[in-house]
Design brief:
The protein has 325 residues and is an alpha+beta fold. It has three domains: 120 residues, no CATH class; 57 residues, no CATH class; 119 residues, no CATH class. It is built from eleven helices and 14 strands. Strand 7 and strand 8 form a beta hairpin. The longest helix is centred in the middle third of the chain and has 15 residues. The chain is globular and about 65 Å long.
């Protein structure tokens, strides 16, 4: 039987002088086309615009690349499309459809003037992370001159400082300026000693835990927390040993994705110890996730036992909350 092809085009609201058209004749294809319907709803309700007005922007207007409204739109639409991790946006920042949803003037990014974002219509994970609250965070502070302690950082591809931030919900507890030729976790234990000792003078029985990304998954930090009754949940960079432990769950997650057409994830936990750097085995939670772009395994290490919180809750409700707005 001959396949019936639809030649009709579906027109959506324009983006400035650019037309937004749904076609069915091939070309660049995305599985996130439903986002255009969300865009239509947002255009009528202005819900994201109103939400973005809840934020106070303290940045220099002459130095910003992305407005608060654009950053909020990118994060909200990303969550709605199943991209819950900030790390996903290092790839999504080149996605022209998501850029259309965020009302970016140039969805292709070809005319971007900022050297760091050349060819990228959207923000990367670092810019979004600065918008959100975190537990422990090291992020770049770009330099534009020959300041003291100026070093080039390969990851951020610029000359910058690498400040350390520590938040407790919306309270900034530490903002320490550091050069960028250091490990992201340098100085963390010293700051934790200072902050936690002051907290316990006032609230001696309070339960304290820290959370941070994989840049803070260091033996010095975890060992200090364990010795001082401080809980932790930290991102853990993937490697071939960890991926091997998640192999069967990733197969099951892919099968679920092929069956439903939706992003699928399976959580599991196990005890793991590095070959050289960790002093003992620790509880690791693995997320076997399969997306339209393929497998997306993620890991966190924690001192919290399974009796207190199951794997899915611990990852989604506790670890991912470090990026809650």
């Amino acid at each position: 039987m001959k396949t019936e092809c639809k030649s009709k085009q579906i027109k959506f609201q324009e983006l400035g002088s650019r037309k937004v058209v749904g076609k069915f004749d091939g070309g660049k294809i995305t599985s996130d086309g439903g986002g255009l319907l969300l865009r239509e709803i947002n255009r009528r309700t202005n819900v994201i615009k109103n939400f973005s007005q809840c934020f106070t922007d303290y940045r220099d207007p002459d130095s910003i690349e992305h407005t608060v409204a654009e950053l909020v739109s990118q994060r909200v639409f990303g969550l709605a499309l199943g991209y819950e991790d900030l790390n996903d946006h290092d790839l999504l920042r080149s996605d022209p459809l998501l850029a259309v949803l965020c009302e970016k003037e140039d969805p292709t990014g070809t005319s971007r003037k900022c050297p760091r974002d050349k060819g990228k219509a959207l923000a990367g994970k670092s810019a979004l992370n600065r918008l959100e609250l975190t537990g422990l965070d090291a992020t770049d502070d770009p330099l534009h001159g020959n300041q003291e302690g100026r070093f080039f950082h390969g990851y951020y591809r610029s000359y910058c400082y690498l400040p350390l931030y520590i938040f407790c919900e919306d309270h900034l507890l530490c903002a320490r300026l550091r050069p960028s030729n250091i490990d992201a976790s340098e100085g963390t234990v010293k700051e934790l000693e200072r902050i936690i000792s002051r907290i316990r003078k006032t609230w001696p029985d309070v339960n304290i835990f820290i959370r941070g990304d994989s840049g803070f998954c260091r033996e010095e930090i975890m060992g200090w927390c364990e010795a001082h009754s401080v809980g932790y949940i930290l991102g853990l960079a993937k490697n071939h040993r960890l991926n091997r432990m998640l192999k069967e769950d990733l197969v099951d997650a892919e099968l679920m994705y092929r069956t439903t057409g939706r992003a699928s994830r399976i959580y599991t936990d196990f005890f793991y110890q590095t070959l050289k750097t960790w002093s003992k085995p620790r509880r690791v939670i693995g997320k076997a996730e399969y997306l339209q772009k393929g497998p997306n395994p993620r890991f966190v290490v924690t001192s919290i036992s399974g009796e207190k919180m199951d794997t899915g809750q611990l990852y989604e409700k506790l670890y991912c909350a470090r990026g809650d707005m």
